[in-house]
Amino acid sequence: MRKPVRLGREEVVETGLAVGYLALGAAVGAAYTAPATGYELSIYASTPTATWAALAVVAAISVAVFLTAERYLAPAVLLGGLGAGSVAGLPLIRGYHFYGRSDSLVHLGLVRSIKIGNDPLQLFYPGSHLIATGLAKVAAVDVPRAMMLVMWAYTLLFFASVALCVWFLVPDRRALGVGAFSAFLLLPVNNVSTYLHFHTYSIGMLFVPFVLYLVFSHLIGGDGRERLVERVADGRGAIDRAGLGYDDGAAFDVGLRRPAPTTYLLPPVLFALLLVHPQVALNVMLLLGGMAVAQHAFRWFRPNDPIAGYRLVTLQTIFLTVAFAAWIATHEWQFINTAEAMIQSVSDFVTGDGSATPRVASQRESASSVGASIQVLFVKLFGVAAVYSLLAAGVVAGRLTGYLGPPAGAGSMRSTPDTARDVTALFFAGCLLLFPFFAAHLVGSISTYLFRHVGFLVMLATIFGAVGVRYLLDEESSVSDVDYPWTEPESRSTGRRIAASLPDARTVATVAAVVLVLSLSLATIFPSPFVYLSGSHVPEGEMDGYERAFASQSSGSPVWFSGVRHTSDRYEIALYGAAGAPWDRQVKPAVKKSAPVPEQAMLDGLPTFYANHPEEVVRRDHYFVVAEADRQREVEAYRELRYSAESFEAVAAQPNVGKVRDNGELTVYFVDIEEDPSANAVDDRERIASGRARRTAPSVPVAAASRLSRPTPRPRSVPRAASLPQ
Q1: b/e string for 75-94 if b means 16 or more Cβ within 10 A?
Q2: Are 479 and 469 in contact (CB under 8 A)?
Q3: Which residues pair with 481 in a beta bridge?
């Protein structure tokens, strides 16, 4: 009796999946048992090698099973998604106190302010802050961890939503898998203006694919007068089993349950997007507006065209426009500043007074300064995204011109697959209204936001580029699920049966190429020296050091802080919340910040720098703060572009500079300079104006106040003082 080799192949696939899931557990376990103990310049280098080796096994197995055994598509895609999700969640797995610097620290303070009862509607984008606040209260987790969980949740939503959008455009299971693996690349995250830490624009951008899927589903819903469209849904969002292109054993178990009608679900989701980030909502509003105009144009001029029969998005566009206008009316100061900057920048460019892409020129100069080729940097950050963008452009052009029909061999889950062509046409019409708005960000000061919109466009390219990848996987490719025509005698050895069931060399090469693309893309979702950036890890010791420094000032006399390349203002907000709304305790008087100190001042002497500062208000004692993150960023990531290792070492050896706090993550130096009466007079005027004038004589020097355990000034020949205990 003879038995098909396919049984042996199934055993190999199932064993491979089991190994993959075990490798996934091992990867997460290895990362979890090696928590961060201090600032990490690169999360990639600091994560155990065992984690990356296990994740490589996960990627290889998930891709190989997806390409060669369609029956096991669901567990293969799930395995790949869990692997990519583990990479995106490494800051959580490895126990980071907080992940995200700059604006993320401000958001940390805002969430803490909301948690104690401050009005979230005063924020321009309170959506993700409210979610983090609710999670912190309900799950009883710290606010920093809740914010990292929120960012991770949006990333997982992005994975699922992109896969569903691609599945809509090419309604077969293989397209669903291609969409999922394309989402795992996280191409919209470029670490120039879009990030994988708590950044509201990035969160909104990752939320958009879910909105687009609801828009797609809404379009094909239709009502009684729109029966021109053969559709998946029955008008209420439920999938019709009669429209399946193949038997239920090979199809998804979609069931007969009816989800919420897309007509009613879409408006609250659009409003949620507005609360997450109004700029992203404006992008979607322009996209929907272009689609609505195209729909009405077809109904007026070509009523017999199938596009004229799709459900309109007019009401949804009007709803979002009204909601956007109402929201802007209550936060006009933030929106007007940006709008005025855009108008001025475009006007200057038209008249010849402005320049194009100054942001790009700035990035090119910075890259060249550290010895990086702008071409190499582009390939690292945007190489895979550029390929997907070309595929997306080819798909849109091919479908609109009719050059591309439905993919060969696609087991359609819709009775009329060319519905995707019509939806693509509407989508392209929406982009025609969106592109000029993005093009305006190429010039002048608003080019700072250029790479935000690049991230948004790459998000769209991920969806349509995945459709292009699906076209490459036709039925005649070796990477399809085909039955082996030969059989083997039952007496043939197990080894021979397994060998016969293994994929051929072409499939192995395809799997290797996909894993390589995954590796190259995921290697840039976090900033690291690989892309000439420093990691965004904020260790607990750094935050604790700033908090102790802020809390140690004397009442009535402000403490002046300065640092390397940045000031202390964001840390103050992160610890105490927005001005006038502290979450813990308010610093009185408010901490004073002066401009960052240049390298030459660190080499020549900080006391001399402050004593001779051109601004009289700065001529006073200072606390100079150096974080371990500052040193590693400047010396290793930026390759001593502006601050050398020598400059950091020179600070501690200077006379009249004493180390008053050092916990390994943050070092605070007291810089003692001679009394400046003019600077003291400024302080006195501020105290009188604020109603906090002290009874002491106005001439009392600021340096006489007791602050961070001020040390006695020492000459250069005296050895360095030991760090004070914490």
Answers
A1: bbbebbbbbbebbbbbbbbb
A2: no
A3: none
- What's the mean pLDDT in 587-591? 63
Q: How confident is the model at residue 589 (pLDDT cuts 50, 70, 90)?
A: low
Q: What does the alpha-carbon distance between residue 77 and residue 176 come to, in Å, rounded to a whole number?
A: 9
- Those residues whose C-beta lies under 8 Å from the C-beta of residue 499, and which sit 6 or more positions away, are none
H runs (alpha helix) in 172-313: 173-184, 200-219, 262-276, 278-301
Average pLDDT over residues 521-545: 92
Q: Could you tell me the strand order of the sheet in which 622-627 lies?
A: 592-593, 560-563, 622-627, 666-671, 657-662
Buried b / exposed e along 338-362 (16+ C-beta atoms within 10 A): eeeebeebbeebeeeebeeebbeee
Do the Cβ atoms of 201 and 213 come closer than 8 Å? no
Residue with tokens 């998946």: 232
Residue whose structure tokens are 């936060």: 331
Quick one: which H or E segment has residue 625? strand 622-627
Is the omega angle on the peptide bond into residue 582 within 30 degrees of 0, that is, cis? no
Tokens 């040390």 correspond to what residue? 711
The pLDDT assigned to 704 comes to: 27
Provide the 10 A C-beta neighbour count for residue 706: 10
> Which pLDDT tens digit goes with each residue over 169-206?
888 888 899 999 999 999 999 998 899 999 999 999 99
Percent of the chain surpassing pLDDT 70: 70
Residue 32 CA to chain centroid, in angstroms? 22
Please give the Cα distance from 590 to 330 (Å, whole number): 28
